[in-house]
Design a protein that fits this description.
With 452 residues, the protein is an alpha+beta fold. Helix content is 38%, strand content 10%. The chain contains 14 helices and 15 strands. A 3-stranded antiparallel β-sheet has the order 3-4-5. The chain has a two-stranded antiparallel sheet with strand order 1-2. The longest helix has 18 residues. The relative contact order is 0.12.
Length: 452
């Protein structure tokens, strides 16, 4: 697609939607008469401090879960066009977004508690579950399971893990002695203890299975094996008070007795685990909204090195821009997102020419300088097209000039939560202080400064 250009006529500075020249950082001099300037060289909004910008991004993204949360259940809609369909995993991210809202004074603690009470009441009393596990999608008004695909109309253990990750953080955060917070903790414990993690071994196999359907049983036949986004599933299964798995299920099923290791080098950076070039960047985000990778190690990896190196490989690939897709050191981040006429898990080995802001922004704890550079570009240079009512739209194609009109819970949530982990470590502290999680990590052979 042709680039979009803005022509500045002699003596006239085009300032629509931008700060005045004196507000620019650095200041922009008037261009020579008739000079053609690329559209993304102009700031679309006034410059503010980086701290103020991070808060702005969190607050606008928070609105997806707060303003657009389902009016009956309070759960997070799958996307901005989903109607009554809510997502269990995205609601776990949304619960963490609500806690961020309290922490950043976007809402009061009482307002946040009220929303969490509505959510947990719905999950306990209305939501359909299967051996304690939730479906991927639910009807947010009735609680009935909504089929994600033809045979995926029952339990989704991975999505359940993301939901419980958020709920356990809420249990730790709402630690007051009053009746409201005490009851909330009891309700969360009831949901947590009801999940029959060990049952999802399917006849005591040495692996966990992703799906089970009341109509199709185990026909989806999707064992959860690493490396990908599912570490949290094995950590919670090992941490369960009621249905724990033995360590052998982790080592044989998830780690494949070490076969999930990679240790090859890409763009000069060694990757401890996973597929070539690391895969889509959500692998580095979903499980680590709560699990603190800092100093976390086991027989297979140093988990901070894994996430940081994965993000840096993704960044360096985009910086190299081998397919001439319009990427750069400012415009980077390949992960699962909407694309023109569809959806895909973008990565260096599946490059569809689409950048998803969540990829770079959710990587702030691993690549703060590179992520800030991307944030500046997304907001100041492309904000007129990317920045909308719930933060950044899901994705865009810098080469083709395509911009998604969508917002997805599983993409918006990691932005607000991982920025908070970068700024304060809030969710890493909350989750790692769960006594069950400490016990579970130990049982799997992990060591961490957060595990006494």
């Amino acid at each position: 697609m042709k680039k979009i250009w803005i022509i500045l006529c002699a003596g006239i500075a085009f300032q629509t939607g931008c700060a005045s020249a004196s507000q620019q950082s650095p200041a922009l001099s008037p261009p020579p008469p008739g000079q053609v300037i690329p559209a993304d060289s102009l700031d679309k909004f006034p410059r503010i401090s980086d701290e103020a910008l991070l808060t702005k991004v969190q607050q606008q993204t928070f609105r997806y879960f707060w303003d657009f949360g389902h009016p009956v259940s309070g759960l997070a809609r799958e996307r901005n066009t989903s109607g009554d369909v809510v997502t269990s995993g995205g609601s776990g991210f949304g619960i963490m977004a609500i806690i961020t809202g309290i922490h950043r004074n976007f809402i009061t603690r009482a307002e946040g508690l009220s929303r969490l009470q509505r959510i947990t009441s719905f999950l306990r009393n209305e939501a359909q579950t299967f051996h304690g596990a939730f479906p991927h999608w639910l009807n947010g008004a009735t609680g009935a399971a909504v089929a994600f695909s033809a045979k995926d109309n029952g339990a989704d253990l991975v999505e359940t893990s993301y939901l419980l990750q958020g709920l356990l953080c809420a249990r730790q955060y709402f630690n007051g002695a009053d009746e409201g917070e005490t009851t909330l903790r009891k309700d969360i414990d009831a949901l947590w203890n009801a999940v029959e993690w060990s049952w999802f071994r399917k006849n005591a196999e040495e692996v966990l299975y992703w799906h089970w359907s009341p109509d199709y049983g185990w026909e989806m036949n999707h064992p959860v094996r690493g490396w990908n986004e599912c570490l949290i599933t094995y950590v919670l299964a090992a941490s369960s008070n009621t249905y724990p798995i033995p360590a052998g299920v982790y080592h044989n099923g998830w780690a494949r007795n070490g076969a999930m290791r990679n240790n090859n080098t890409y763009h000069g950076i060694q990757l401890p685990l996973g597929p070539a070039y690391g895969g889509p960047l959500f692998f580095a985000h979903y499980s680590f909204l709560g699990i603190d990778p800092n100093g976390l190690k086991d027989a297979y990896a140093d988990y901070f090195s894994q996430q940081k190196n994965h993000a840096l490989i993704n960044y360096q690939y985009c910086r190299a821009n081998p397919k001439n897709n319009g990427y750069s050191e400012r415009c980077w981040g390949l992960t699962a997102s909407d694309i023109p006429n569809g959806y895909t898990a973008s990565s260096p080995t599946n490059d569809r020419g689409v950048i998803a802001p969540t990829a770079a922004l959710s990587s702030f704890p691993y690549t703060p300088a590179e992520s800030m550079q991307a944030l500046h570009y997304f907001y100041y240079k492309r904000g007129d097209k990317l920045w909308k009512e719930y933060g950044f739209v899901d994705a865009f194609s810098p080469k083709e000039g395509w911009y998604a009109g969508s917002f997805l819970a599983i993409d918006q949530g990691p932005i607000i939560v991982m920025i908070e982990n970068y700024r304060s470590g809030l969710f890493w502290e909350l989750f790692m202080k769960c006594p069950e999680v400490q016990r579970g990590l130990k049982s799997l052979g992990f060591s961490s400064p957060g595990i006494p």
